[in-house]
Every structure is written in structure tokens, then in C-alpha cells.
Amino acid sequence: MIEDAVETYSDLFDIDQNLDRLVKNIELLNYLNPLNIEQEKKNFFACKYRFNPKFNYRKIKFNPYKMQRLFFSQRLERIEDEEIRKLYQNIIYEYSGLIQCIETIGKGKNFYYNSLKVFGTPKERDVENARFILHFEDENNTNTAINKHTASDAEAYFIAFGKRYNFDFNIKKSTNISAAAMVLNASETLLLKKNHMFSDNDLMVLANHEIGVHMVTTFNGKSQPLKIFSNGYVNNTETQEGLAVFSEYMSGCLTLKRMKELAYRVIAADSLIKGYDFKDTFDLLYSQYKLDREAAWQITLRVHRGGGFTKDYLYLTGLKKIYDYYYANKDMNILLTGKVTLEDTESIIKLQQLGLAHKSKHITDSFSENLNTNTKLDFILRNLK
């Protein structure tokens, strides 16, 4: 059936493959993570948080102007189906926005405004949701919260966890990432922060988040006939991160502390639109919200890297949307077909019916059974606006 579709929609496949060749160069997070995080962290703590860090970034390996021109030279009028043509048109605009983001990394407000165009900014409702979560009292820490595992311990854990899925991925360690772990889609690599210490619960969270969703959608996307499933639909971050945190919830390792971390990210992202610089956002989290300085640094770094990166507020909005979607008894598997969005499920079904896409090869195993026993989390998630 796929062979017939390739023949019938040859123009579509030509454009899809052209975009695939171009988009391999523009993995935003590859460029966005500063190269000198640890040194600037030491400097920032040594100066008692009075001076903003000065981050260095990777050099761009492509010509942004030429890349933009190549994207917009695609002859989309060759795609006869209006709905599919519109999908590809929107994707080209999205990739164009990502190129502008990469081109302006480290250039202050220029990057921030480009980030806003691609990822948006928290609405007042999102900030109210974050404050609602922060009103709840912390739960007692158990032994699962002690940071006792090294990055090498984590690597062994993730290798063992990955065996439940029928795909192989790479694991590398790096000091130049702002998260404890992250997936690089193009190279099928799980990056671990080299000097990070992990708790038992961290390992469960990251395994279910990074491997159970991000790796699953990476390999599902790459198995699809059309490369847009791998390279990403427009605004797919909210759905993808929502699925990943929902996997934490379903596997029983989502905690109130983790929910609060997502809430603080919303507060930090909101501080950007209020004109806060790095030290202002850090002070907001550290002095006003009483976060410990490591956590305050980590969240501030994530939202201020590049010049102001708003993506982090989407974890909470995405989680709420996926939670509601699941409890409406809708098909979760369709959201795992690649780097897709909840809003495009009808489009995905249409592509499947035309023989241009197939069902998910790999399924997030945590979605098969709800292991969450924390009634407080359900109360919070039901009552988010």
C-alpha cells in the first residue's frame, strides 16, 4: 500500500524528502545549550548573584539566509490535496522560525522575540495554574529523593529500561546541557548530564519521560513513510512534552515536587515578558519563592539561555491537555506516531487512510495501566484551567 501511495503522491514525497535533507541541520537544542555552563555557574555564585552570566554557544554550521531560501523554494503547489499542502506550508513557516531562533542565539532580545514567535508565552491563566500548584504543601521526602546515582549509574539503568522497547539508541554524557537528560532526535541519542547526581525517582521519571515517550516518538516517526513525522509537526512541543510528563504520571513516579518544578518554569518564563534579566529571575525564584539555589539556577538557566527561551511553560499546559484527552477515552496511540500534535489527529488519520502513514510501531508501555496513587495530583490536574 505504501508503494502505491509513493507513486500516487510522488510530488509530495519529493518535497517531504527535500525538507528532510534541510531540517537535519536545525536541531535547535543542539545550538541552544551554552558551552560554559559550569564555569558561569561558579562565577555567578561567587559574585553573590549580582552579575549576569555570559554564555558561549556553538557556531552555526549552515548559512541561515541560504537555508531560508531553500525552504521557501519548495513548490508546494505540486501538492494537490489542499489540506496536506496547508500542513506543509505551516511546517515550512515553523522551520523558518527555528532558523531565525538559531541565527540569533546569544543576541538577547532578538532571540527572545524569535522564541516568542515559535513557542509563545504563558497566558495569565497559565500563571494562575502555576500559582495554584505552588499553594499545596510539600510532601514528605522519602529515600527515593536522595541523589545517590552518578551519570554512569543512570546510563546502566536506562540501558536496562530500554530493553522493554524494540529499538536501539545511543547514550552519551555531556557537561554542556542544561537538563539532567535530553533526547537528540536526529542522532537517536540520549544525552546525560555528566556531573549530575540522580535519585531513584529521577531515574524513573527520566526513563519514562525520555525513553518512554521522546525515544518512542523518535523511532515511530522515523518508521513513517513521510519524514514530517520525524522532523515534527507545527507546535509539537506542547503535545510531546505533555505526553512525556503524562508518562511519568501513569508510571506512578510523578510527584508534587515535580509538578511544582513545572509551575516554577511557568513563573520563570513569564518573568521574561516582564523584562527580567537572568539575575532578576534567579532572585524571584531564590529569594521570593525560596527555592534552593541549585534549583533556582537550573530553572533560570533553562529560560534565559540564548537570550530568553519560553518553551518551558508548555510542559504544564501540555500535561493538562493530555490528561484531559486520556480521561475522555481518546486514542493515545495516534499521538505516538511521531513528533505530532494533539490538534492534528484528524490530519494523521487522513494520512493513514490514504496510505501515507501507518499506526505506531512502538507504544509507550506506561500508558497501558495507570499506576498513579497520588490523589492530590489528580485533584490538581482536574482543577487546572
Q: Order of strands across the biggest sheet?
A: 1-3-2
Shape: globular
Instruction: Calculate Rg over CA atoms.
Output: 21 Å
Low-confidence stretches: none
Mean pLDDT: 93
Biggest sheet features: 3 strands, mixed
Beta-strand percent range: under 5%
From the helix content, strand content and strand pairing, which structural class follows?
A: mainly alpha
Query: Which percent bin holds the helix content?
Result: 55-70%
> How many strand units?
3
Helices and strands, in order, run as: HHHHHHHHHEEEHHHHHHHHH
- Termini Cα gap: 43 Å
- Give me the number of helical elements: 18
Protein architecture, described:
The protein has a three-stranded mixed β-sheet, covered by helices on one side. Helix 5 (64-72) runs antiparallel to helix 6. 56% of the residues lie in helices and 4% in strands. It is globular, with a radius of gyration of 21 Å. A hairpin with a 4-residue loop joins strand 2 (181-184) and strand 3 (189-193). The relative contact order is 0.14. It has helices at 2-8, 10-23, 28-32, 37-46, 64-72, 82-103, 109-119, 124-134, 151-162, 200-222, 228-231, 236-250, 256-273, 278-288, 293-304, 314-327, 345-353, 375-383; strands spanning 170-174, 181-184, 189-193. With 385 residues, it is mainly alpha-helical.
